[in-house]
Sequence to fold (23 residues):
Amino acid sequence: MRFWTTITLILVLSAIGLTLRDR
Fold:
């Protein structure tokens, strides 16, 4: 379960980073 949780967190952080860059 930790494996998928880690991937999800990375994807979320990446999405937030892209959003901040867009601004």
Observations:
- The two ends are 34 Å apart (CA to CA).
- Helices lie at 2-22.
- DSSP finds one helix and no strands in the chain.
- The mean pLDDT is 93.
